[in-house]
Request: fold
Amino acid sequence: MVIDQNDILKRQQLRNELLLKIYKHHYDNNSASFKVTESEFLKNNELKLACSYLEGKGYITNNSYSGYWEYKPTPQGIDYVESYCLK
Reply:
């Protein structure tokens, strides 16, 4: 079984971009949650996997409701973004 390195790089990029969006949304909107709808997840399984990964790493929290999910950065996620952006 061969794993395509480009797929890995794309997933890493998606996770970093998503965490940056959640972080930016948090600060630009008075700590409001970043919302993702069920239809967005159905259209983009990689997005769903990225959210699950970030939650598993402890970088975001998740509250689910009927038809959508809300995400917020954790202190660990905020520290990661800020250290990542300062590199």
Remarks:
- The beta strands are 34-37, 60-65, 68-73.
